[in-house]
Design brief:
The protein has three domains: 2-135, no CATH class; 141-267, no CATH class; 272-504, no CATH class. Helices cover 32% and strands 27% of the residues. It contains 13 helices and 24 strands.
Length: 507
């Protein structure tokens, strides 16, 4: 037991060393700007009247957020730009200037970030001044301000206001946002659907944090996972393993109507733009529940073919005018999994995609993604012919985190098999086993090896903990989450890779 603890502490020290190196490299240039000495600081105040902090700080013309908690109050400034947000780009309210004090701790700036040590500033003009503090984060910051609230036909609250994003440069846009997800509503903070608008309420496409241009965005709360690592780790891994249709996710810190709301992930949606195709040549379906054997077929028989939602399947709204074909393709797919055919539609399963999907789900222990939380893509390849591919979605229950919201450290031996692989195993077992084995062995030397995956965990740890974001999350939501969560994930990955190596090479 003592040896196990010493191994854990040694790993945490190693992570800390890695994070220090990354932080120092990313912030060293940031402070190549003049800061006030103690003498200069005093001179700025001489002969002036001190007032309360009532002025606003701006970056590139956009208001910076004011962070307030039990440990202090001050503006939170993002350093997510690779060149650093230079202090001389920060301005004060009209008629005032701002200057920062050199407190002599800038060589230990990684500690300032992680422990939220403030950098004092002064806002002044010829007659008065006020003092304040600035805190810093290496993550982007998003601000959502609500101006008006409306309700849609189903009673869903829609909030209209302004979105401001600091991350490399400042971007502001009118927006609408609302709570997304069903099960996530039970968590201590919600996930949101964000729609960017222009001044006339029309969709406004912007590229956020280097991701694609879009008006449609998702804000994931990451609330089910104490470590805040699993969901992004799985997303990044899928992008490394997937041959088409990548979608991206970036960490941010969110302020909601003036209150710090914690660590979030800004994500692109999965849609036709992701797939680089259109609704004219591709059918898109989402699996919403764990599929019963004939749930779609039974619901189609009982309720007809008139709805976008049928049993465990949700048909993309783009197909609303062509529901007959959308139903024909899905009906044929469901019959195919049952070993039958209606012979109305010819389906070609993309086996390489399905092999990658099954190995990926096995690697992340995706218990909530086997059938559920997947997209089924049917690409037209000829008259009444479609190629079937699948993409996973929603990775909140992965790497040992199960549907009971508990981390199961014995999950490393969980058997994960997608329904399509089960079908292929039943009709062509030798070819399927060979395909899975060859695909796994190719990935085991690249992205599915221990060194690579543990490096990715360290990278995400650095982003969350060394930015101070985890500390602010803990304060905001009265939590006590520490570094030990990282070692839990690492240990599970080590054991899972051993299990996978034995399993896929046993065929």
């Amino acid at each position: 037991m003592k040896l196990k603890k010493w191994v854990m502490y040694a790993n945490l020290l190693l992570i800390g060393a890695v994070c220090f190196s990354l932080q120092y490299q990313s912030t060293h240039q940031f402070f190549q700007v003049p800061l006030l000495s103690e003498k200069e600081w005093i001179e700025k105040m001489e002969g002036k009247k001190e007032t309360q902090l009532q002025y606003q700080l701006y970056l590139e013309g956009e208001k910076l957020p004011l962070y307030s908690s039990d440990i202090g109050e001050g503006y939170l400034i993002s350093l997510s730009n690779e060149r650093g947000v230079m202090l001389d780009k920060i301005t004060a309210s009209e008629g005032y200037e701002v200057a920062f004090l050199d407190i002599g701790e800038l060589e230990n700036f990684d500690t300032m970030l992680q422990e939220m040590k403030p950098l004092p500033f002064i806002i002044y003009n010829e007659t008065s001044y006020c003092k304040g503090n600035a805190f810093f984060t290496s993550l982007p910051i998003m601000i959502l301000d609500t101006y008006t609230t409306e309700y849609d036909g189903e009673g869903e609250e829609l909030r209209y206001g302004e979105m401001t994003l600091f991350g490399g440069s400042a971007i502001a846009s009118p927006c609408e946002f609302h709570i997304r997800g069903v099960s996530s509503r039970s968590y201590y903070k919600m996930s949101y659907k964000l729609n960017l608008l222009d001044e006339n309420g029309v969709k406004n496409q912007e590229s956020l944090l280097g991701m694609r241009e879009d008006d449609d965005w998702i804000l994931r709360s990451l609330a089910s996972d104490e470590s805040k690592i699993r969901e992004k780790l799985a997303t990044d891994l899928w992008n490394e393993m997937n041959a088409f249709g990548s979608y991206h996710m970036k960490y941010i810190e969110l302020f909601l109507d003036g209150t710090y709301w914690g660590l979030y992930a800004l994500q692109e949606p999965l849609d036709f733009k992701t797939l680089q195709c259109t609704s004219e040549d591709t059918m898109l379906y989402k699996t919403c529940t764990w599929p019963g054997e004939a749930l779609f077929l039974n619901n189609m028989e009982m309720f007809g073919r008139n709805n976008l939602r049928c049993g465990d399947i949700e048909i993309d709204k783009a197909h609303k005018e062509n529901l007959d074909l959308a139903y024909d393709v899905m009906e044929e797919y469901k019959y195919l999994l049952g070993g039958k055919s209606l012979e109305k539609i010819q389906l070609d399963l993309d086996k390489e995609n399905l092999y990658r999907l099954n190995i990926f789900l096995s690697a992340i222990i995706g218990v909530d993604n086997t059938g559920k939380n997947q997209y089924i893509i049917a690409n037209s390849i000829g008259s009444s012919k479609f190629k079937i591919r699948k993409l996973p979605w929603d990775f909140d229950m992965t790497f040992g985190l199960m549907v009971d919201d508990r981390v199961h450290e014995d999950a490393f031996s969980s058997f994960i098999e997608d329904e399509t692989i089960s079908y292929l195993m039943s009709v062509e077992p030798d070819e399927t086993k060979a395909g899975l084995r060859e695909t796994y062995n190719a990935f085991s030397t690249t992205v599915l090896n221990e060194e690579h995956l543990l490096e990715q965990v360290d990278r995400l740890y650095c982003a969350i903990y060394e930015s101070g974001a985890q500390m602010r999350e803990n304060i905001a939501w009265k939590q006590d989450v520490g570094e030990e969560q990282v070692e839990v994930i690492k240990q599970l990955i080590r054991r899972r890779l051993i299990w996978m190596d034995e399993y896929y090479n046993s065929f």
